[in-house]
Structure formats: structure tokens, C-alpha cells
Amino acid sequence: MKSQIAIHKHSFILFKGLAVSIVLSVICSIYFETPLPFLIPAAFLFAYQVLVDYEKIYLVLFLCIPLSSEVFFTDHLATDFPTEPLIVGIMLIYIFILITKPFVINKKFILHPLSILLLIHLSWITITTFTSSQIVFSFKFLLAKVWYIITFFYFAEHVIKDEKKIHLILWLIAVTLVLASTKVIIHHSLLEFGFKKINAACPPFFRNHVNYAAILSVFLPFLWFITKWSKNGLSKKLTKVFIVIISFGIITAYTRAAYVALILALIAYWVIRLRLVKFAMALASIAFFGAVSFLVTKNKFMELVPTNQTIAHEEFSEIVASTSELKDVSTMERYYRWIAASQMVIEKPILGFGPGNFYHFYKHYTLNKFSTYVSDNPEKSGVHNYYLMTLLEQGIIGLLIFLFLIYYAIICGERVYHESTDRKRKDLVMASLLSMIIIDSFLLMNDMIETDKIGSFFFLNMALIIIIDLINKKEKGELIKTEEAE
Do 349 and 419 belong together in one domain? Predict the structure, then answer.
């Protein structure tokens, strides 16, 4: 796409500025012995590409998601590089488009019920940010949420206008994800695929085995989609190889949440096809609240206190067995944090402690009886249940809004799936739904939406469902007009 922004004529001036900045950055880097001056020409390159064709930057972002690494500047300041700077840059591009060309924004997408629900979710996060117990941490959380939603939801609709663009984005992710997972598999093989060794094989592209298994699982439905709809034999064979590599990566990641999520996704496939989503959701909700009520009644949860048998195991078979016996240290550490989170909810049930504030307060609400030898939490990780985290940080209203958002997204997706007359679009909706359900499953045991490798898909999935819903409605409207004309 040529000259997408009106000031394209100034691109040559910017190009000369780039040349000068490269020379100056080389001199400064040598003199100060740091690579940081190279950020200046990087900024010029970004600005130049924005003027020429900003859609290419969006494609580069998806190419980089599987290869991003967490970079720490200080103990309290870190970023996913290069994805997070790209996400922020793309957000600024979208804001610039809104200011300069507001007429190009698709009002039907903005006013779609799912879009409105997402906006309500973001609005409540904003409200609880200003009532937060630690507003600085909550504001950082809010900013991250804003640029994820703008980049992977609103900008996705702005860029993705046809199936070719969707295919290209999925292929870019597939290639780099396979490369990154191949690196992990090779490294892991040198460690004899040991259960305790998987975390050592994951860096620099993945923080740990859970992060690694999560993105592989979340992308697997899309890999199935591009395999099914590859036009030539070579690409189809290649994607089948990709599926084998990704599947092997999931198996050897030794992540229980991934196994459970994929089983649920397989069940969900038939639930969606049989139009049983509402029934399944009602059943799951009843089961969840029934389990919580059972544990709360007469303080039955106190029977889950860790013992000296609660340890970290060396083999995966042992950890599976110990989980069923409630003797696995990672499971018991979750109980320790969940109990603390529940106490926090009781203290601030309406507005919560503020987004991003669990870690800064939870130790005052823990029960020592449930502590384990890993409870020091030096990595400063969260509650390990996104729904409970939303409840304690954003209050009851925040949780209800979030639950309604994901419930409606799946219900809407089921409707769009069955309304799609085009087989390819049906399969794309199904892939998006299964990917979303896998993410929702992971959220029961992890806090992952605020990471580039999972948060990107969470919002992209919703955007794809709305995009296809609008395409279906447009075709239906045109068909009705044709029939009336006849």
C-alpha cells in the first residue's frame, strides 16, 4: 500500500536524518561504550516505514512475537523486546490515524456488542486504577492493557481486510514459532528431555516451560487452519511438519495446564458444532461455584494444609500423581496465594486493590499453615489464577464484566460459526474460538493476558470473530437486496 499517510512527501528528509543518525550513533556508541545510541536510528527507521507503509510494521510485529525476549533494565522495569516497543509504536500510529483520518475507522466494528463489552472492561480497569491502593503500579497495568487492545484488536481490524492478510499473518507466526520451538527441542534433547531441565532450555524466547507450552497450544488451532487451507502440496506438507514439531514441543514441555486445555479444546470443538455452548457454560459455572462453596463451607479448605510430603518432584509422572494427592509443591503454593487473594477480596470486594497490585499486598493476608519452601516468591509472580486476580484487583464488578466478556465472545463466536456460509470462514472462526478457549483454560492456573505471547492472541481472536461476523452480515444484506431487486 503506497503513501498511506498524507505526509509521505517528507520521507526523503527523514531518510537523510536516518543516515546522519547512524553515523552519530556509531560515534556515540564507541565513545560511551554502549549500544543504546542505536535506538535513535531505529526510531528514524520506524518513522520512515510509517510514512511509506505502516502495515509492514504490523507484519513484523507478528513475526517477532514468538522470538521476543524479556529484557530487564532494572529490578522493577522490564520489557518484551522487540515486541513491546513495536506494540507501543503501532498504538501511536493508530491514534495518529484517528486524529488525521477518523472517517477510515469502521463504525460497525466499534459499535459491535463485543467491542462495546471490551470497552466497558477497559473503562472499569480505568476506574479501579484511580481508586487503587498503589496507583503507580495500576497505571502501568492500565497503559499495557490500552496498547494491547489498540494494537491487537482495533488496529487488527484496520489492517486485516481480506483472507490473504490473515493467512500471511498466521504464516509469519508459524514460521518463527517453529524456529523458536525447534531451538528449545534441540536444547532440551541435549539435556535428555529431563522434566527438571525444560526451563533451562526455554530462554531466550520463552520465560519458562508454561509460557512455552501456552503459545504452542494457543496457536495449534490456527496451524490446523492453515494446514487445511494450504493451496499447494508443498505448503500443506510443510504445515504438517510444523504440526508435528509444535505437538512434540507441547508434549515435552511437561505442562499440565497445556494438556488439560487441549483436551477441553477438543471437547469444545464438538460443543460448538452441536450448538451447546450456553449449556456447557452454565454447567461449567455451576460446577465451579459448587466446588468453591464446598471448600468454603465449614472451612473444608483447611484440610488441604501442606505436609512434609509436599515437595517438588523430579519426574513428570510423580508430579501428576502428587497433584491428584494434593502433595505437589506448585499446586500447594497456588492454594497459598489463592487463600491470600480470597482474604483480600473480603476486605475490598467492590473496587479491589487496583490492577497490578496483588504482589504488593498479598503477604499480609496469607495463612502460614499453607506456606511452602517456595513461598518467598523471588520472581514476584502473581496469584496464578487470572479470574481470582481480576476479582481481588478490580472487585466483583470487574470480574463480572470480564466473565461476561469471555462468555459473550464464545457465544457470539458460536453464532458466527453457524451463520458463516463459507467453509473457510467457518474454520477460521472455529480456530479463533478454540484458541480463545485454550487461553481461558490457562487463566485458571496462570496470569498470562499481560504477556505478548498470549495477550496478542486473546484480543486478536475477538477481533477476527467480529470481522467475520461483519463480513457475513454484509453478504446477507447484499443477498437480501438482490432478492428484493428480482
Answer: yes
